[in-house]
Amino acid sequence: MQTTKRIKRKSQTTKRIKRRSIVIALIIGALFLASFPIWSYAAPSDQPSGFVISGISIPSDIAGYHVVFAQNAGDGPCLTAPELDLSARSSSIESFLSSDSNQISSIRQALHDLNLPGNINIGFVGPGVSRDSLIETKKQYNDATASGCPKLSTLNSVLSDKNQSIGTRTDVNAQSVYMLAPWVGSNQDSPSGYSALVNNIYTNTGSNRLIQSGLAFFQASQPNGIAAGGNVVWADDVNSLYAHAFGITYTVGHSYWFTNSYSSSSWWACGEDITVGISTYKCQALTDNGTYVIADRDTSVWAENANSSNNSWYTGFDYPWYAWGAQYYISGTGYVWSGDSHQIGTAQNSPCQISWATDTVSGITGDLINGDTANFNVNSNSKLPMAC
Q1: Which residues partner with 66 through β-bridges?
Q2: What are phi and psi of 371, to 5 degrees?
Q3: For residue 348, what pLDDT band results from cuts at 50, 70 and 90?
Q4: Higher per-residue confidence, 193 vs 362
Q5: Which of 347, 343, 344 is nearest to 308 (CA)?
Q6: How many CB atoms lie within 10 A of CB 140?
Q7: Ramachandran sector of residue 112 (left: φ over 0; alpha: ψ -120 to 50; beta: rest)
Q8: Is 237 exposed, middle or buried (0-12, 13-18, 19+ CB in 10 A)?
Q9: What is the mean pLDDT of the chain?
Q10: Which ranges constitute the DSSP H helices of the chain?
């Protein structure tokens, strides 16, 4: 079993984040649990939760975890499989990955015993995320993607800061990074233009190997859009790289932390709003292949552009987009990047494919080495090109 522990980082763009002691974490966790009693642990129950998946009524508790929300495949454009959200008992992502995550096998067995589909996407919500905001954010996300679900990293142009620290290691179990949520412009392709800033890892084996978490930006003028087009999302190969809502509220100017981690024989994509507090998190259980992170072009932090028609798609955005404090993890201990490389992936037409080259136009200034800040300068198509 692996855990994820953050070490001290520095940022040139936001306030420095102090190391959190165990005592403080326990106090904060207790306060949040007291403030949100609905998230407290409950014994297994046969009482219905009010949610139904594939025609089967979901009980209020699964393997001792309270059911918060459920959706069926097809309830939204991005939902190719059912979703089930449970309340986590831990007050932070780190404690979740070292405790709650080891119950995922029992939970999957309990769902099997209920004759529920085996492809349910299971998530765990921290005590700092209110039930009402989770449900509202996910419903808004379904509305915002009504014209089509964003598909990350598929023939989109990319401005990438690649992690060059891993080498040939076979014991790297996670990668994390901080991001600042920008104001989202309203000049992307209508009605379904989008772009994103994401944390990516590529695992060591199998056909399903790419895992992503981060911030996605939709056309801001969409009806019922979230916080002027901003969204906190995860994606993976198993779910065809469709961007799924974590259910964490996107707030302009807030700092978010994302980690893609292997723990308790499962991959996890986790995100939290650290401006609100360490318990404002969501961890998504994944079934992608592999057991460790490898050195690859896809093990990186990158900005991507899916706009293909409007040359001034970036108008109205706050830019540059900021990321900092990147780390990779060995047996749960975090290490800052010791090396990186800046690359541009340009979408080429006829046929549509990606052509990679070294960034020679200062698309990225600064870098993620030693926990520092990378500035993704997205305000030019020569720096972040158009998609196919």
Answers
A1: 61
A2: 80, 10
A3: confident
A4: 362
A5: 347
A6: 18
A7: alpha
A8: buried
A9: 87
A10: 22-35, 93-98, 104-113, 131-144
What is the rounded CA–CA span in Å between residue 348 and residue 4? 38
Contact between residue 193 and residue 219 where contact means Cβ atoms under 8 Å apart: yes
209 phi and psi, to 5 degrees?
Answer: -135, -15
Among the listed residues 314, 385, 309, 298, the one whose alpha carbon sits nearest the alpha carbon of residue 347: 385
Provide CB contacts within 8 A for 47, sequence distance 6+.
59, 60, 61
Whether pLDDT at 115 is above 60: yes
Neighbours of 241 (CB within 10 A): 18
Tokens standing for residue 84: 């089930």
Residue 13 C-alpha from the chain's centroid: 21
Residues 381, 310: contact at Cβ < 8 Å? Answer: no
Q: How confident is the model at residue 140 (pLDDT cuts 50, 70, 90)?
A: confident
User: What single DSSP character describes residue 379?
Assistant: S
List the one residue out of 320, 324, 302 whose CA is nearest residue 379.
Answer: 320
Rounded Cα distance between 189 and 195, Å, is 10
* Token pair 């119950």: residue: 103
Q: Who's near 77: CB < 8 A, 6+ residues apart? A: 142, 145, 146, 148, 149
Region of 68 please: left (phi>0), alpha (psi -120 to 50) or beta.
alpha
Q: What is the pLDDT of residues 364-387, one digit of tens each?
A: 999 999 999 999 999 999 999 999
Q: b or e along 341-369 (b: 16 or more beta carbons within 10 Å of the residue's beta carbon)?
A: ebbbbbbeeeeeebeeeebeeebbebbbb
Neighbouring residues of 303: CB distance < 8 A, sequence distance ≥ 6? 158, 159, 160, 195, 196, 197, 321, 376, 378, 384
Q: What is the pTM of this model?
A: 0.87
Nearest-CA neighbor of 130 among 312, 347, 287, 276? 276
First-residue to last-residue Cα distance in the chain = 42
